[in-house]
Structures are given as C-alpha cells and as structure tokens.
Amino acid sequence: MSEILRRICILSCFFGAAVSFIPERGIKQIAELLCTCILIICILEPFADFDWTTLSTEMALVRNNEKMITERSEETKRSLSKSATEEEYSSYILEKAERKGIILTNVNVEVRWSDEGIWIPWRTYIECKETGAKINGLSETIEAELGVPKERQDWNY
After folding, report:
1. Per the confidence metrics, is the pTM higher than 0.90?
2. 3-class SS at 82?
C-alpha cells in the first residue's frame, strides 16, 4: 500500500512540474487531462486485482461474528441482571422476616423471564428455625407482594 502511495505522490509531482513547463495553449489542457487520467489509473490499479468475492465472504463473516458477540453480550447482561434481581428479592424477604421477628438462616429466590421482558420471582427456598403463625404470615406476604404462591415456596425448618 505504501508503494502505491509513493508512486502516486511521485507521479503527481512529476506531472505537476511537467505541466508547468508547457505553455498556455490547448496542448496544456490535453497534457493536464492525460496526467489526470494516468493518476486515476494509478489510484484504481490496486482494485483491479482485488478479489471481490472474498470481500463479500469476509463481510458476511464479520456480520456473523457481530451477531454472535451481540447475542453473548445480551445473555451476559441478562444473566447478571438475573443474579442481581434474585439477590434483591432475597434481601426483600429477609427484611420482611426481620420486621416480623423471624430469623431466617438462608433465603434463595429463583426468578424467570416474563413475557413483559423482566425478571419475576418464581420460587423461594427459605431456611429458618421457627414454625407457626409467624411463618404463615411471612408466606402470605411473599405470595401477596412477590406473587410466589405457597406451592412454590420451599421451607426448611
């Protein structure tokens, strides 16, 4: 590529000098036109040997790679968002339990992707050392506020 640019620069300087020595008449315009045509040919020459089918193949590969990278990025973003959402819901349940005076030893919330395009709580796994009315109250709160029915709430006492 640098060889081509060097050749074009040398020819431009040579043609500029040559045309400047030609007197102002019709022959100067012909010389300028001829020099311009030669420079255009020199500029376009590298494209004559170019394999255009390879270019289209390479462009298709680039588009394919771009699509794969975008998909992976979206999956990673969704995965990170999922983990953060699960942690937020777990913290929420721990906070509700603390307000009710219940000590929970472990809370895990499983979320699923909804049709609305958000993570929603699907199932809870809760470990605690208490039983009774307080636990039933917390279970009802989880069902009412997070939408996780009692059937998908797994309690370990």
Report:
1. no
2. helix
